[in-house]
């Protein structure tokens, strides 16, 4: 029987997530994209909503288990992950390639060249993903579940003729039959001898292709989550606190004039460099790795130039700006520092020491909040889980600002975010959301012990042949990378324009 309260809460949260995703686009979009690029905007709203659904379905699964909510969670989890896989591999790449295509064909028809380029890029992405998945499925698509085989020895004996003596004897576990001969009644029993044989073995079976695709999503999601989440664990609170420490202050006109002149000289050099990169790209049919790295450096230098110019205007024309915003950034930084410390302590005390953890830590908080009022547990879990996604976004940005060999930066700026940045960050969030759900299922095992998603991950995904060993190392890599990021940012806290 369905739980009406659970249904109402689910519907309200679903509508709130969709409205929040739409507001995010309206608040951050660039003026050039206003009232245009509707297809990418729909994809971004759908992608953001799916990422939120993936994270928040875990407390729904918990509530559905504890209150008999009536939701078919097994089917819902499979459905949402299949949709996420299609979004990651097909829809978002197509929208990204279509939006970024700028070449004209011979007839000058931009739309047709965009469509052809988008189909080519999406086809290549789909073929690569399908090839990797099929090859790995054929050779490694087997779950290896460790089990304990217990063997006991049984034999039938004839004990004394009183049934009461049977019930007082610990070795006897059941009466087998009763025989009467004359005035004597004989009882035959089956007893277990006081020894048993325990043997560890492995149950192997081939999983379905759909389950293996989910495993691949978790696998690739963990790669990004370890890199960007590990960096973001430290970078997110670090940057929030530094925004307060380095807040703009009022400057006199002579200082303003000098800094404006320096920014103008930087802008002139970057303009010449941009034209040179554009000419080089037109002359070459294929982009080289060195060109891509130089382009990424150029994007970083332009971003820092824009930041310095906006900061200069705040310092002089707006007298340092609104100090309340930087005070809120300080509060957010302190709160984020607390969340980072809580997560790292939980990893040390609970995740690292499985299957016999030192202390359940955050599990106790979630269970008690859930017992007090279910929505409190959901809110606490949502804060902890969405903080991980924010760390991934921050870590990705921090990675792009320091290392230039992989991809250019895609910053999210209020009122100045182009749709390609929206699409890139939506793709990143979707991939990481799957890994975050798997990680929180492990980290909050006491809270999610009887859920459908815990059964899916703990039984099959984490025991997949070959990949299961990587899952063990991911947790350690996440912790180590967070520690190294803290050291690196302490030595080089500020980004400098690339040369």
Describe this structure in words.
It contains 14 helices and three strands. It is globular and about 120 Å long. Helix 3 runs antiparallel to helix 12 (419-443) and helix 6 crosses helix 9 (323-351). It has helices spanning 4-28, 38-67, 73-100, 110-140, 163-167, 209-245, 253-283, 289-316, 323-351, 362-372, 374-402, 419-443, 452-460, 467-491; strands spanning 142-157, 172-181, 184-206. A three-stranded antiparallel beta sheet has the order 1-3-2. 29% of the residues are buried. A hairpin with a 2-residue loop joins strand 2 and strand 3. Mean pLDDT is 83; it is low at 103-108, 154-176 and 189-195.
Record keyword descriptors for this entry.
mainly alpha, single chain, 499 residues, 3-stranded antiparallel beta sheet
């Amino acid at each position: 029987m369905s739980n009406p309260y659970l249904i109402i809460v689910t519907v309200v949260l679903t509508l709130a997530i969709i409205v929040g995703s739409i507001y995010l686009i309206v608040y951050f979009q660039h003026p050039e994209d206003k009232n245009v690029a509707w297809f990418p905007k729909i994809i971004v709203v759908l992608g953001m909503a799916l990422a939120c659904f993936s994270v928040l379905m875990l407390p729904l699964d918990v509530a559905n288990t504890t209150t008999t909510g009536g939701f078919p969670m097994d089917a819902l989890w499979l459905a949402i992950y299949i949709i996420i896989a299609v979004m990651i591999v097909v829809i978002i790449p197509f929208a990204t390639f279509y939006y970024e295509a700028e070449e004209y064909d011979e007839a000058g028809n931009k739309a047709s060249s965009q469509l052809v380029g988008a189909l080519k890029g999406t086809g290549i992405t789909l073929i690569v993903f399908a090839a990797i998945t099929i090859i790995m499925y054929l050779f490694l698509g087997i779950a290896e579940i460790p089990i304990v085989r217990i063997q006991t020895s049984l034999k039938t004996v004839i004990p004394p003729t009183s049934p009461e003596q049977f019930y007082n004897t610990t070795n006897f576990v059941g009466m087998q039959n009763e025989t009467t001969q004359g005035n004597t009644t004989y009882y035959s029993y089956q007893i277990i001898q006081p020894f048993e044989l325990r043997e560890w073995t492995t149950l192997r079976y081939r999983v379905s292709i759909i389950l293996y695709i989910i495993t691949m999503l978790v696998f690739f999601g963990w790669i990004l989550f370890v890199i960007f989440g590990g960096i973001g664990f430290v970078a997110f609170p670090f940057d929030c606190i530094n925004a307060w420490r380095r807040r703009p202050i009022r400057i006199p006109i002579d200082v303003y004039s000098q800094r404006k002149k320096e920014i103008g000289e930087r802008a002139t050099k970057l303009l010449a460099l941009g034209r040179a990169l554009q000419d080089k790209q037109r002359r070459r049919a294929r982009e080289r790795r060195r060109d891509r790295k130089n382009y990424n450096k150029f994007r970083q230098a332009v971003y820092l130039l824009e930041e310095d110019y906006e900061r200069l205007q705040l310092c002089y024309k707006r007298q340092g700006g609104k100090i309340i915003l930087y005070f809120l950034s300080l509060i957010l930084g302190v709160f984020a520092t607390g969340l980072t410390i809580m997560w790292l302590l939980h990893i040390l005390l609970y995740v690292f020491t499985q299957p016999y953890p030192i202390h359940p830590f955050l599990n106790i908080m979630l269970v008690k909040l859930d017992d007090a009022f279910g929505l409190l547990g959901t809110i606490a879990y949502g804060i902890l889980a969405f903080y991980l996604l924010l760390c991934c976004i921050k870590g990705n940005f921090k990675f792009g600002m320091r290392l230039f060999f992989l991809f250019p930066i895609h910053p999210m700026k209020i009122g100045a975010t182009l749709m390609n940045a929206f699409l890139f960050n939506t793709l990143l969030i979707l991939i990481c959301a799957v890994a975050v759900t798997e990680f929180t299922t492990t980290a909050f095992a006491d809270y999610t012990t009887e859920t459908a998603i815990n059964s899916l991950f703990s039984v099959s995904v984490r025991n997949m042949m070959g990949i299961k060993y990587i899952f063990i190392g991911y947790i350690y890599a996440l912790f180590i990378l967070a520690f190294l990021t803290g050291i690196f940012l302490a030595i080089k806290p500020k980004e400098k324009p690339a040369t």
